[in-house]
Amino acid sequence: MAALPNHARVVVIGAGIVGNSLVHHLARLGWRDIVLLEKGTLPSPGGSTGHASNFIYITDHSKEMTALTFDSVRQYQELGVFTQTGGIEVARTEARMQELTRRITSSKAWGVEPVELISRERVKELVPFINEQIILGGFHTPGVGVVDSLQAGTLMRQAAQQLGALTIAAGVEVTGIDVERGRVSRVRTDHGDIEAEVVVIAAGIWSPRMAKMAGT
């Protein structure tokens, strides 16, 4: 573990995909004196990033979320951690088939193509082990895929380090966040304290616990 500095421009708490992505983007934007704290071990801290399905489905009924997903896929492709597999959402009820029809409309409106509504027989062709008797059809998107999020995080951290921007400290637990005159001033840990201008909480399900330390 790297020795903790006494001061940082920004301390990011949590080395999951959100924290890793953030330090990567900040470093590329010219930020320096970034510290990334992680209570667990690296490359897999043990949070949701390490055990998520990592399957990226592009279509969302929100145009903004679809655009964000497009950009995420582009970044993962640049890192070499995205495998395009195609994906199918299946329906077992007429109501669900109607929803899949709506997803087709959203996909085409937001530029996600090709997409198609397929029969149960076509689903069976693409996924031979499925029991097609219990489904009515499916929504097929060839462009979706899976990402190796742990490797992505490692590459993001390494890129920030290579820019001379990042100090990484794993196995460090945050014990307090000091606030003075309405602004964060310090992060306390079991390995020492860091004076901080900005603190970002990216700790997944532990984030509310971290936020309470800062009185929010």
Annotate the secondary structure layout.
Layout: E1 7-13, H1 17-28, E2 34-38, H2 48-51, E3 55-56, H3 63-79, E4 82-84, E5 87-91, H4 94-110, E6 116-119, H5 120-126, E7 137-141, E8 145-147, H6 149-162, E9 166-170, E10 174-180, E11 183-189, E12 192-201, H7 207-213
Parallel strand pairs: 1-2, 1-12, 2-9
Antiparallel strand pairs: 3-8, 4-8, 5-7, 6-7, 10-11, 11-12
Which key terms come to mind for this protein?
216 residues; alpha/beta; FAD/NAD(P)-binding domain; D-Amino Acid Oxidase, Chain A, domain 2; 2 domains; 7 helices; 36% helix
Structure, explained:
By secondary structure, the chain is α/β, with parallel strands linked by helices. The protein has 2 domains: 7-51 and 149-213, 3-Layer(bba) Sandwich (FAD/NAD(P)-binding domain), CATH 3.50.50.60; 55-144, D-Amino Acid Oxidase, Chain A, domain 2, CATH 3.30.9.10. Helices cover 36% and strands 29% of the residues. The protein has helices at residues 17-28, 48-51, 63-79, 94-110, 120-126, 149-162, 207-213; strands at 7-13, 34-38, 55-56, 82-84, 87-91, 116-119, 137-141, 145-147, 166-170, 174-180, 183-189, 192-201. The strands form 3 sheets. A 6-stranded mixed β-sheet has the order 9-2-1-12-11-10. A hairpin with a 2-residue loop joins strand 10 (174-180) and strand 11. Helix 1 packs parallel to helix 6 (149-162). It is elongated, with a radius of gyration of 21 Å. The two termini are 30 Å apart. The mean pLDDT is 95.
